[in-house]
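Could someone model adenosine monophosphate with this protein?
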Amino acid sequence: MRLNSVKDLEIKKGERVFVRCDFNVPMDEFGNIADDRRIKEALPTIKYLLDIEAKIILASHMGRPKEGFDEKYSLAPVAKRLHHLLHEEIFLATDVVGTDAKTKAHNLKDGEILLLENVRFEEGETKDDIEFAKSLADFADFYINDAFGVSHRAHASVHAITNFFDDDHKAGGFLLLKEINFFHKLLQSPARPFSAVVGGSKVSGKLQALINLLPKVDKMVIGGGMAFTFLKALGYEVGKSLVEDDLIDEAKHIMDEAKRLGVKFYLPVDVVVADKFDESAMVQYTTYQEIPEGWMGLDIGPATVRLFGEVLWDSQTILWNGPMGVYEMDKFSRGSFKISHEIARTHGIKVVGGGDTADLVQRAGDDEEMTFISTGGGASLELLEGKKLPGIEVLTHK
Ligand code: AMP
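Reply:
Sure, complex below.
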């Protein structure tokens, strides 16, 4: 199976290229872009097409608008930022496949860029509607998917639209290929020891990824809320900490499997407990054996940071997905920040997946030290689960 790159296509000057990007950037309360990493990551593909002097039609979603146009979810700020980054005029359509988009697409000259409005303003997008997909496809001679972050969704602009382009006219953009190749290499032939650091809220959200990763890694390090289901499975009282009782057997099974496979499995040895889920809560440090009744564990403790740091030190590959605690609250963010620093200090390949973890690494000031930070949270998790992504499946050919 092969996935074409934009470079494999014979695109000529003046030909029309539709590029599905992921410009779903976080916005602050004043409507400003809070983090433009996703826009910057799309630039290599756009610049490549600019050099060819193709006519470029960009499309993306933004947030989850309910019905039709909603200023709050407009791509206008993205158009502005693209203009600043590229120093090129960006024509923004006021609709997706309506008269304005069609007129502007028609008037586009060689080497010019049109940005369509948020594709989710059309209800056909999330329904993978073939008619809507056809209207999008009508804009172009070639289709490029550079939106890794939505490739796990069968939506019209990443899935149904590919029906209208043959293998010589559709491909992945540079960002998409970078993401896919990285995860592929990571899971097929990682430099060893290979450690996975998995955190976040619940076991259920990452169960399949844990099961899929277990036979591939040398060490598995568990933090965050999900650790408490494992600790309970070992027979400890965890107070009011987050526990999924229905997954206790599954947690036991994962630990048994780890033992059988010779995977070193690590859980926190101490935790920061609070009397309530709030920034103003009273806190204590305690070992996992002594969590007081009625208290909840919201972060890993200092002994665990030491232990995990020791465990990860000799790793040649580290995959990190999920925070070690409720990092959004300052009081419970230390464990996650310290583990970020520990991972950043190691010398091997360090891969960060998941929106929360990417955000965390950036806030910890460690993003420059990481080898690769995936732009797609859900999509990267599905790759780790061993699933095939619908948006990628339709681009591959024999
Ligand atoms: P996920 O989306 O599964 O990666 O989970 C990320 C969320 O897990 C973050 O919002 C954290 O606040 C939350 N989280 C991490 N540790 C804990 C914990 N000990 N208890 C409750 N929530 C947690």
